[in-house]
Amino acid sequence: MATLRLALAQHDFPVGAVAANAVQVRELMREARAGGADLLVCPELTLSGYPPEDLLLRPSFLAACQQELDSLAAATDGLAVLVGFPHSEGEVYNAAALLREGHVVQIAHKQTLPNYGVFDDRRYFRPGSASSIAVIGGVRVAMLICEDVWQAEPAAAAARAGAELIVVINASPWDAAKAAEREMMLVARARETGCAIAYLNLVGGQDEVVYDGGSLLVHGDGTVAARAPAFLDALLWAEFESATRTLRAQGWPAVADVSAEAVLYAGLVRGIRDYVRKNGFSDVLLGLSGGIDSALTLVLAVDALGAEHVRAYRLPSRFTSDLSAREADAQARKLGVRCAELPIEPAFAALLHTLAPEFAGRAPDVTEENLQSRIRGVLLMALSNKFGALLLSTGNKSELAVGYATLYGDMCGAYAPLKDVYKTTVYALARWRNQKEPGTRDSAAGEVIPHAVIERAPSAELRAGQTDQDLLPPYDLLDAILERFVEGEQSQAEIVAAGFDAETVRRVARMVLVNEFKRRQAAPGPKVTTRAFGRERRYPITSGWRP
Predict the structure, then answer these.
(1) Which region, left, alpha or beta, applies to residue 446 given φ > 0 means left and ψ of -120 to 50 means alpha?
(2) In this predicted model, which residue has the larger pLDDT, 442 or 137?
């Protein structure tokens, strides 16, 4: 009976940081060797990061990855190491190299190249043609890469070739449905093949995606042996018994709250932290309006970076309510965030005066409303430039979907944490965060988002008595329609047939379709649903088709 000791590196390997990623692998090798591991496993495209996109078109980048791989191989010193890298040999392959005894002894090529959602593998890679098996510590180990395990044949081919254990390295982005789908798929593969599966996933934020880790061990009979926490870097230890084809986790970290809100919140925090730090910044700022979106964004930013790295600004106008001012100030004090007030009335009055000759004879309308938002955008961008702090845009997915946002106004920003979060989910996250118990490692516990902010009618406060529902359906209704139209790709007729009012559906669908031009200019934000605006949902701006 053979026993194989595994060290699974659920770690972040940033895109393009080839030398730094190799240094991290060397440190993990040291830890793995000290812990008696037979095999250290690192994620998909460890050295290049994922997705490297058009960096893969640069020969110097591919050469740097190969150079670091060869250097790592020379340092194996009795340890077997599986490392993801872009393998260039005329064609480029998404590959995993098995390193041991000072050499690259085997290379597995990704066989199934995803080209849907956020994935664009076929633009860069050629597919591999066979499943790779190596004998490590007396165990026949198959090496698959991400999408390979989502299809039945690569795992089946590995089983036919005698594999006992399938090791899968991944860069699988998170969304709210992914963890359950992933687990069901792995259970199915284990049952089909009789092989145990060690599934290692990347962790960390990269532009518009977040990787959750969430690594899994599955016994050969399809029983889940262990689940790693989401959004947590960890070296995960496990032992495989060939006689029973079982895997045993050793000391895996546990998280008390695994609710949907807890995991989503952790993903948003990770997205902010990694986007800011990986782009060479330490501080952020945002406009704090006294509304729910900016209130949640403020707490997320503080939890991600610490209060000392967050600046908030109130930018009141003639239409800003006392409630907004009072609650925004109260929240900033609670969180320990510096909050300054910069009234926009002088700039608004000056611009209205400048435009008066051209606007003569025309009644005030959305133009004047947008002007206020754009003044705020100019001020916040100036503050961002002056202080070297990234501006966070605070809009949510519901607003972005229907264009209830102002270009060069509230859409200004370097990163939009709530870009893929529907308004109803914003409220759910706010209530969840307020219920966190004292004594957590978060910035503050208790009511960090004022109750009055959660309960008030949402409003842009760009005219007297304005509420969002002047122009939009109630958010629970709007989000239900949007989820069908955006995530579900349902037609208007299908949504109406499901029981929704035909005129409301027509109005919402039209708003989604005519505002594509705004979304093309929106700041990046983390994908957390199954159909995010941006690289995942790419509709033409100019189109005669009306679904």
Answers:
(1) left
(2) 137
